[in-house]
Amino acid sequence: MRLRVVVAAALAVALGAMAATAGASSGRAQANKLTVWLQVDAQSGWPDVVAAANQQFQQQNPGWTVDVQYQNWGDHLQKFDATIAGNDTPDVIEMGNTEMTAYMASGAFADLTGSKGEFQNSGTWLAGLAKSGMYGGKLYGVPYYAGSRVVTYRSDLFKKAGITSSPTSIAQLTADLAKVANMEKGVKGFTPMYLAGTDWYSALDWVFDYGGSIATTHAHKWVGTLDSPQSIAGLTAYKNFFDTVAQKSAATLDEANPAPYTVYSQGLTAAILGPAWFSCCTGTKYKNVTAQFVMPSHTAGKPIPGFLGGSDLAVPAQSGQKAQAVQWISDFTNTSNEQSLQAKGNIPNATNLLANTVNARAAARSWFVPQAKHWVDVENGNILRTMLAQILTGKLSVAQAASTASANIAYTLNQS
Amino acid sequence: MATAAGTTTKWSRQRPLSMRRLGRGAVPYALVAPVVVVMGAILGYPLYSLVRLSLDRYGLFELIQHKGVYIGLKNFGSVLHDSVFWHTLVRTIVFAAANVGLTMVIGTLIALLLVQISTWVRLLVTAGLVLVWSMPPVVAVQVWNWMTNVQNGVLNYVLTELHFGNYFQHNWYTSPFSQLSMVTTLIVWGALPFVVITVYAALSQVPRELVEAAEIDGARSWRVFKDVTVPVITPVLLILTSLSILWDFGVFTQPYLLIGQPHITTGNYLMGIYLFEQGYVSANFGRGAAISILMLVIVAALSVVYVRRMIRIGEVT
């Protein structure tokens, strides 16, 4: 029967399509080749710094090549796990400071304590960042850079609205933004300040500003504290601020899609809150009318506590070229490269290099995530983003959403 | 006695023959053996590894040591006691049913349309379908994302311009239902070409004389379709349905990328994503293996009805 031919053909096509999903694998570690995994931030923000480090490394090691592979924050850990399983890890890997603990505890990285002297300025490393690369008294992660979060704004619009000085409190910022909004109300889709609603790195600034926190330990157990009165006051203030100045439909959006600087470069907002390096991508049209100020607190005269993000550089334990890996890290984090990073809007890895930048001033008050092995699961489970979306869309009250999130966080952190 | 004697002679007469027959009978097995060995190595070994992994505690620490710790059936126990698993299972079954149903109904309708239209139009439609079929899912997700983008998506623009309401900066991904609905449109769109072209091929096998006879007897087009066309193309519809169930139950790429990692929560998990989040993202590979074995069993159970009917049809025709 010819129908059978049809069935058989259909099956063959289907199986063929399934078999076509083949994966490509990268090559084994070669002699005289160093594989380095950096995040895409370096690719878009400071490729010249990477090139300088590679050049210096190759001068010290003639005949060596450096293969820098750029990774995304969203999936680099899964890819790293796969290379561990296949004994094919990179020789150097950039890790977010919130990601280090779980890997250090599992023995994924080489102990660099003995090489500490090879890294310039290691005696004056930023205390908070250096701590994220230490475990059990040993050094596993070399501080790479940190970043505080500032307001990047359109100085031309602020000036036109008659604003002459940077706001010193949230109330003043709200009033300033109202003036800008009033002036630009003819522009379709314009929002005075663009905030991605579920960007918890920004939203939790308000929680810490009002004296709240995410979780604390009590009798060797983690206790969620987002439902404390201080945290709820902070979340409520964030909701009020969002409702007043931000775009309603961005309540459930994240900060990657669209990137706040994309909205900014399209001329649809006067201000964005995020890492200082956002100034990289505000568009050529607004390059000369873009400036930055420290996000103020609700208490006049103080900066709002900002998330102190940062990265470390680690050498995977399986790397066969640890000495070269250490040397590359040392080249990459030397004084001149760290100063270049500062010029691009980052905080360098050592206190003696700190200049009086808006970024450094913003770092005067900062907060960090609970240093728990399972914190990374809280991030991956999007518990904070879910809470923020519920609050901003009004699906749940602040207290309800905070209490659910708080319970979820405690449960996740207390896993064995 | 006579019977016994007869049997003996038969045996003695057949003995040398049966050896030869045995030799002859072994040839097909010898021919198929290399394929069986290769398939066994390709499919059997990973399956064996999967089962072994599902009985181990295998986290980041064990991954680095390259050695798991045997814990028996604890992974299965913890998954089956996880309320997220059961919620996800129900959600996935509803999701797969909606996707398979829409794919099959719309696909069959388009195939029927193809029979009716002129050759040129049919060629154009087929070319369009093949283009859809050839588009990789990741690219399709990017296009969907671009079209439904909240800031300046073309969908919002067109709907607003056509006065369907104010869709300016409308966000299409606010709730799990709307997120999964968007995923459904993408999956059905991507699955249609295969269904349409296959059903169209099957329709061309429906004997013309049967249709004509039914029409002469006064059957209307719905009766002809129900009582003449459908019985003939049933095997094709069944195989398409069971394949669609397999694909839509375990779908991962489209929901994961379209909803986006920052918005994946226990409230919108599908089984494929649940497996990825629990196994890979949380680096709990033993638990992930247990989930994938459970998924395998569930899919087998879901499609057993169809497979049985297919085998029965195979026996009849």
Q: What brief labels describe this structure?
A:
heterodimer; A: alpha/beta; D-Maltodextrin-Binding Protein, domain 2; 5-stranded mixed beta sheet; 4-stranded mixed beta sheet; 17 helices; globular; B: 317 residues; mainly alpha; MetI-like fold; two-stranded antiparallel ribbon; disordered N terminus
Distance between the termini of chain B: 45 Å
* Biggest beta sheet attributes of chain A: 5 strands, mixed
Largest sheet features of chain B: 2 strands, antiparallel
Helix content, binned percent of chain B? over 70%
What percentage of the residues of chain A does DSSP assign to strands (E)?
A: 15-25%
Q: Could you tell me the number of beta strands of chain A?
A: 15
Low-confidence stretches of chain B: 1-13
In DSSP terms (H or I, runs of 4 or more residues), the helix count of chain A works out at 17
Shape descriptor of chain B:
flat
Quaternary structure: heterodimer
CATH architecture of chain B: Orthogonal Bundle
- At CATH level 3, the topology of the domain at 33-147 and 309-367 in chain A is D-Maltodextrin-Binding Protein, domain 2
3D architecture notes:
The complex is a heterodimer of chains A (416) and B (317). Chain A has 416 residues and is an alpha/beta fold. In chain A, 41% of the residues lie in helices and 17% in strands. Chain A has a domain at 33-147 and 309-367: 3-Layer(aba) Sandwich (D-Maltodextrin-Binding Protein, domain 2). Chain A is built from 17 helices and 15 strands. Chain A has a 5-stranded mixed beta sheet. In chain A, strands 8-11-7-12 form a 4-stranded mixed beta sheet. In chain A, strand 4 and strand 5 (138-139) form a beta hairpin. In chain A, helix 9 packs across helix 10 (229-245). The N and C termini of chain A lie far apart (60 Å). Mean pLDDT of chain A is 90; it is low at 15-28. Helix content of chain B is 79%, strand content 1%. A two-stranded antiparallel sheet of chain B has the order 1-2. Chain B has one domain (83-316): Orthogonal Bundle (MetI-like fold), CATH 1.10.3720.10. The model of chain B is unreliable at 1-13 (pLDDT under 50). Chain B is mainly alpha-helical. At the A-B interface, helix 1, helix 4, helix 5 and helix 16 of A face helix 2, helix 8, helix 10 and helix 12 of B.
